[in-house]
Specification:
The chain is mostly beta strands and about 150 residues long. Helix content is about 10%, strand content about 30%.
């Protein structure tokens, strides 16, 4: 089996303050893409949203602490694969964001839940036919968490 080798294609620069809680929807960020990948951005501006795949480089996974945990106060313990927490065995982040503008190798986005200097692993256009789901089922505790009722 071949070892997995991933090289970042750029870094995140957060240009507005990170949120106090979990609402990253208004955060503005810039994706600074390495010049070697500049031609790969051709046509990306035709999309309204993109999916950013990144390394949550500031996070560490501890099986004893994170494999089963509560995602918040007064919420049930669930496995890490049932959560969107940053404490996964492979600290890979994935977020669909609004593409605001592209200037050369800098992509301005809104709603990226990644901290400053986060390595970018890949970018894909958001395609509703592949990425959108009709009537998804989510647990009640997740709805509580997103509404701030915990």
């Amino acid at each position: 089996m071949n070892p997995l080798t991933i090289q970042p294609i750029g870094i995140v620069k957060t240009i507005s303050p990170e949120p106090e809680g979990d609402d990253w929807s208004k955060v503005l960020s810039e994706l600074h893409i390495d010049e070697a990948f500049a031609s790969g951005l051709e046509g990306l501006g035709d999309w309204s949203h993109i999916v950013v795949i990144y390394s949550m480089h500031g996070s560490q996974f501890s099986p004893e602490e994170h494999l089963v945990r509560s995602p918040g106060l007064d919420l049930p313990e669930v496995g890490i694969f049932a959560q969107r927490a940053r404490f996964h065995p492979n600290t890979i982040g994935l977020t669909a964001v609004r593409l605001m503008e592209i200037n050369d190798t800098v992509i301005k986005v809104k709603g990226l839940d990644a901290i400053d200097k986060t390595p970018i692993l890949d970018i894909k256009p958001y395609a509703p036919i592949y990425d959108g789901v009709q009537d998804p089922l989510v647990p009640a505790w997740f709805i509580q968490l997103m509404q701030g009722n915990v």
